[in-house]
Each structure stands twice: as C-alpha cells, then as structure tokens.
Write a structure and sequence with these properties.
two-stranded antiparallel ribbon, 2 helices
C-alpha cells in the first residue's frame, strides 16, 4: 500500500508541476518592441481609412462622411437640440 501511495503522490506532484508550467507559459506577454530596418518601421504597413470597400479608395468621400458624422454629434445641430 505504501508504494501505491508514493506513486500516486508522485503522479499528483508531476501533474501539479505540469499545470504550473502551462499557466506560466500562458501568462507570458509577447514582445511589443518596434522593429526598425534601415531606420524605417519594419512592421505591418498601415492602410488609409478610406482604402476599404466602403469608400473604394476615395479620400474625398471618406472626408465628407467624417464631417457629416461630426455634425451629427453636435447637440446644437441635432433636431430638438439646445
């Protein structure tokens, strides 16, 4: 019986150690340092806001929509505004 208890304790200890290792690995934070090559940013290229399908790459249409949204956010220009 003693040998069985020792084996069970070892298995439980190894399982607990495995759980601790998995939790520590899962809690790591990936590096967020900016990488530069030849003095320029080497990460994902940024695309302009107007480059999506909604505006078909038309910057003027995007700017008009932004101005329209800003006007609608003004409490003074909304219907029933102060």
């Amino acid at each position: 019986q003693e040998i069985g208890a020792i084996i069970v304790r070892r298995i439980v200890s190894l399982f607990a150690l495995l759980i601790v290792a998995i939790v520590q690995y899962g809690c790591q934070e990936p590096s967020q340092a900016v990488q530069y090559e030849d003095g320029r940013y080497a990460g994902k290229p940024d695309t302009p806001n107007w480059a999506g399908a909604a505006f078909d790459g038309n910057r003027e249409t995007w700017q008009k929509e932004i101005r329209r949204r800003n006007r609608l956010q003004s409490e003074y220009s909304r219907p029933g505004g102060a």
